[in-house]
Design goal:
single chain, about 120 residues, alpha+beta
């Protein structure tokens, strides 16, 4: 029984050490990318345009999501869910990539997701 607990303890310690090492590696990679100029401190609409993304703004009103082009404020698509919105954008604008600013994604509840 004590051997089993010892194995579980060793596994748990290894898991925690691996997780912390992964976190540290990711932080270092992002820091290197920012220092080299590949990723800016603050993501702006201009940065998204330079990366061949169409910068979009998402609004949420009465259970519907509406997508507008940030550059010219034109309507692009709508949907009741994130998946429906993605499908409508892909259908209306095939072979295009879209990106919303992180603060806008957080506003509409899509934070930690991409569109």
């Amino acid at each position: 029984m004590s051997d089993f607990l010892f194995i579980i303890f060793i596994w748990f310690c290894g898991f925690i050490a691996g997780w912390m090492g992964r976190e540290k590696h990711a932080i270092n990679q992002v820091r290197k990318m920012r220092e080299s100029g590949l990723v800016p401190e603050v993501v702006t609409a201009e940065y998204l345009e330079q990366q061949d993304f169409i910068p979009i703004m998402i609004e949420h009103d009465k259970g519907m999501f509406f997508v507008y082009n940030i550059k010219d404020k034109s309507f692009m698509a709508q949907g009741r869910t994130k998946q429906e919105l993605e499908k409508n954008l892909a259908r209306n604008f095939p072979d295009k990539q879209f990106a919303a600013l992180p603060q806008n994604l957080k506003e509409v509840g899509f934070d930690n997701d991409t569109i």
